[in-house]
Amino acid sequence: MAFVGLYAQAQEHFAGIGLSSRVGVLNTQFNPAELNNMSDKFDINLFGISANVSNNKLTVNDLVNNDNLENVLFRGTDPVNLRADVQVSGFGMGIKFKRFALGLSTKIYGNMDIIDVDPRLGDAFVNAGINSIFGATTVSNNFNQRVNGTAWGEVAGTVAFSLINKEKHKFNVGFTGKLLLPGSFANMGMDKFTGTISRVGGVAYLTNTQASVNFAYSGELANSFTQFDNYSKSAIGSVGGVGFDLGVNYQCRDKAPENPKKNQNRYKLNLGMAIRNVGSMTFKDPNNKSTNYTLSIQGTQSLNLNQFENVESIQDIETILLNSGYLTKTTSNKDFKVNLPTTFVLYADVKVISKLFISGYLQQRVKSIDVNDQIATQNNFTITPHLNLGFFEFFLPFTQNEISGFNTGLGIRAGGFYLGSGSGITALMNNAKQADIYLGWRFGIF
Q: Cα separations (Å) of 27 from 152, 186, 201, 311?
């Protein structure tokens, strides 16, 4: 099953640069209230891209030294979690006038997730149980195991307002409204799976099995959700939903700007809180289908798992199971709704000495990711010392990710150009379980 073949794309996007005191449209994805802290009256975002992959099994050393990564991925007993995602920021702009700030941004997202997959079950489906010993293994889970891929776009408008704007204190509120453009979707979920996996010779069998199964797909991801082309071919569609972000921001200012014509962002303390990605979108592609089944294999019945090797799509898996006669349809819908990955964000950026700052950033998801209609996200906590020299700024993020563990990287800003990674340093040490990179270019006027 080829879904384990996607490792080259890379949890927190734009680690470090997102809380830079050089504020522009980019910062609104962390907190819309930050737009009122723009360093210039006008900000133009030309492009930005961030790619990230994290998991709890494979290390960089495994990627270099193993030809058969599927075997390594499904070893052990801990559930497999893997996330690969790309975020592309297109043209955006912001304008600030007195206490108001307005912004426009465009983005495309592509995610692929493996969520809480039992390694014994994954090994049986993907490798015909090559990691298991001969005999029988009983698997019993009380949670939903998912494999999921999603591609969508958004056009967002942001408005921010300063409720308090004094010499020493500033308090902003901000709101971002989003038009969502669903592109493609694929999901396979197996909830409360119980069954016995047996390996006889080179053949793996599934017996005494009961589970609730969901198959849902739309657009190109119905054909394959591991190939980049399938994400890019149907990354965005027509308007199919709305979403919003809401945030507040407080600053204890350092000193008054030396140049009143330039909205310099100087502070001793910058605090922010936001709720992001509230909303949902409906997929209505002609290729749509979302069906819930009951999987039941009882008595002397058995399912040959070898036939799932090299399967490319969720649709193919569904077809094999239907042809086996062990699936019973319970509900089916052509159009279906998918929820955005809503997160709660809390952060602080403190000036330690002249030009040296330390920020702390917490991202916590709000909704459970074991629901079939939920786009997944991960919890993170990041500490980032950053040195702001004006034209140049340097970042050293230290991140604790719930899946990949500890990571650290390096970032740099030179004027409006930025380049960095939240895990580049640990990735070079070979034992890291995350790799990411981001870059982009923006500029300010006046």
A: 20, 30, 57, 41
> Among residues 406, 400, 413, which one has the least CA distance to residue 429?
406
Q: Which residues of 403-436 are buried (b: 16+ CB within 10 A; e: fewer)?
A: bbeebbbbbebeebebebbbbbbbbeeeebbbbb
Buried-exposed string 324-352: b where 16+ CB fall within 10 A, e elsewhere: bebbeeeeeeeebebbbbbbebebbbebe
- For 269-310, the pLDDT digits (tens) are 999 999 999 999 999 888 788 999 999 999 999 999 988 877
Residue with more model confidence, 375 or 255: 375
pLDDT of residue 161: 97
- The answer for 305, left when phi > 0, alpha when psi is -120 to 50, beta otherwise, is alpha
Helix (H, G, I), strand (E, B) or coil at 55: strand
The answer to whether 82 and 116 are in contact (CB under 8 A) is: no
Q: Distance between terminal CA atoms of the chain?
A: 54
d(CA 154, CA 157): 10
Task: At 397, list the tokens.
Answer: 């993020």
CATH class of 2-125+149-185+215-286+337-445: mainly beta
* Ranges of H-type helices in 301-377: 314-324
Burial of 389 (0-12, 13-18, 19+ CB in 10 A): exposed
Torsion of CA 236, 238, 239, 244, to 10 degrees: 0
354, 378, 337, 405: which is closest to 13 by C-alpha?
A: 378
For 117-185, the three-class secondary structure string (H helix, E strand, C coil) is ECHHHHHHHHHCCCCCCCEEEEEECCCEEEEEEEEEEEEEEEEEEEEEECCCEEEEEEEEEEEEEEEEE
Tokens of 202: 């080179």
Full-model pTM = 0.89
